[in-house]
Here is the input.
Amino acid sequence: MRDLLIVIDMQKDFIDGSLGTKEAEAIVTDVIQLAEEFPGDVIFTRDTHTEDYLNTSEGKHLPVKHCIKGTEGWELEARLEAVREKRAALVFDKITFGSKELAAYLAQEAGSELSSVTLCGLCTDICVISNALMIKAFLPEIPIRVKASCCAGVTPASHENALEAMKMCQIEII
Here is the structure.
């Protein structure tokens, strides 16, 4: 049995780029420490869009270009990329909030070996909650946890609302 940490979308555009916030900047050091010291395996996700982002459904609702594949804003924060490389961690590029590929991988490849899944990253109220709920649906008997101090939302209020919503769905907030 093993524990797994999933680091969600710790990319430049969400930290200090086009959609960055001071709350996102404030968690970077703690996320790095968690990813470095986590006793189990670590997986990363990257929000991934193309140049035609503004023509997509998401782009029409959030008309701010971000995480365009191959740009600096798409890249993982440099120190986290170093952790990813050192740990030879998998990375899942995802075109929307939740990663179907990540959830399927966990269910098919890793589910029987997992004792817990912990999530951290950005944004609590969009991609963290989406992935946590999707993983919970695929692995209903595995404890799913979210490390609140290593997450940030679009706003502090939406971060707190997302944590409360996840609690109601039997996701442990640590």
Notes: The mean pLDDT is 96. Residues 54 and 62 are 8 Å apart (CA to CA). The radius of gyration is 15 Å.
